[in-house]
Amino acid sequence: MKKRILVVDDEKEVCDVIAAILDKTGRFETKKENSSIKVIEAAEEFKPDLITMDLMMPEVDGASLASQIRENQQLKNIPIIYITGLITKAEESTHACDELEDYIAKPLDAKELIDKINALIS
Asked: What domain range is 48 assigned to?
């Protein structure tokens, strides 16, 4: 059974690239969401195994969304991978908060993304 990944980024092109990387493996089913104000609703409906999320979005930032996700009984245990330009590749490992969160610095590396997803939801 394919693992379900909710891909969240306000830039449609970024969502398309991430979804294409994941879809190409044949192991994941993806849903894309470009509006941060619709993420909770999309997650409740799609029931993802993992969420990839940009930290910097115009309506609601990724950190605030993560707080909302952690407060939601249905969603609180879903791992999140933040994809951000706010940190460097060297800083990635120092930003992981717990076993439900990880970081990938932009530019995105496809192998790194797949490896981190596998580590969180293997």
From this structure: 3-121
